[in-house]
Amino acid sequence: MKAVVYNGPRDVSVNDVPDAKIERPTDVLVRITATNICGSDLHMYEGRTDFETGRTFGHENMGEVIEVGDGVDKVKVGERVVLPFNISCGFCKNCERGFTNYCLTTQPDPAAAGAAYGFAAMGPWAGGQAEMLRVPYGDHNCLRLGEDAQEKENDYVMLSDIFPTGYHATEMAGVVPGDSVVIYGAGPVGLMAALSATIKGAAKVMVVDRHPDRLRLAEQIGAIAVDDSTTDPVQFVLDQTMGLGADRGCECVGYQAHDPQGTEDPVMTLNRLVQSVRFTGGIGVVGVFLPQDPGGPDEMAQQGKVAFDYGLHWFKGQTMGNGQAPVKKYNRQLRDLIAAGKASPSFIVSHNLSLDQAPDAYQNFDERNDGWTKVILKPQQ
Length: 381
Ligand code: NAD
Ligand code: ZN
Fold this sequence. Notes:
It comes from Janibacter alittae. The chain is an alpha/beta fold.
């Protein structure tokens, strides 16, 4: 089968690889119909995170079930399913408590937790930017879709990661109706956090970035766009909230954050959040920070350490939640909002491309070229 394979920093190609197949009785085999390129793929694509050459990318996957193992009794051949990027077992200590983002069974490294398709340090699992994908613990890891699965494919595929991830940011921040919310990052994840805050009834949503096309998408869903190349975002938020600061804040950039002048300073977004969220406010950090950042600007950054202003955070009595999103916790409800026509996350989709166009798509998305907001690869086209 064809698959998007990593050859080294900023080098992917579409190669022939061995077909995905059922390996255990609990596996489900899916013919991939839609698979997104994610900002998280760029950590590996750029070489910031080590990824084995020859491995397949792709953790935002959706498709049709074409085969099930003998131990699968819920998911049926022919059904359309969307797959949470977290691969989890459902029965370990963390999964039982709902933390499918930190599954202990599907992650072979005893010093780590959590697994994903096609991801560095997240287990050996192949990615779904391919014609087929093996889904472990298929009954647990497939979310079944209704008859509108194909018609709304560009919406439902967002349930694999970024819609629940954006929602998780707002959950960790504690967004409730009437809140003011500031979101750093208007990439796909930040825009999904903005959509989620709006769904939750936030009174005011402010989204900070510097790419005009992404800021326009934030405005399209009723958020206030803040261009930090021309505006001080902290002062802007204070001005919008009678000097108090926003009730909630979301970090949707991660350790590749930089200032508009190009200075690499990943911690800037965290400190700006601490400064622009009110006393006792909540902050949700879904942008990725890791114990290692080989490409970091100095030794401290390379060890994953950030000069975070904990003193001000403590003084303001703020809360902060962090980490991978537990997709399964939210994707059923978000699926039903899409089905009911009450949420349409596909407004961020800029490109629907064939698998063969992946190398060009990676380059454009990585360079954040104008108009390249979210790419969906369609391997069957
Ligand atoms: P992206 O790179 O497309 O978007 C990031 C955006 O942040 C860009 O538009 C960029 O211009 C902007 N930005 C850079 N520096 C900034 C700053 N200082 N202030 C404000 N905006 C700034 O990526 P994405 O797909 O939207 O993903 C965002 C982050 O979320 C990545 O780190 C990704 O790995 C992470 N992520 C986490 C999870 C999770 O489960 N926690 C899931 C998916 C993605
Ligand atoms: Zn992703």
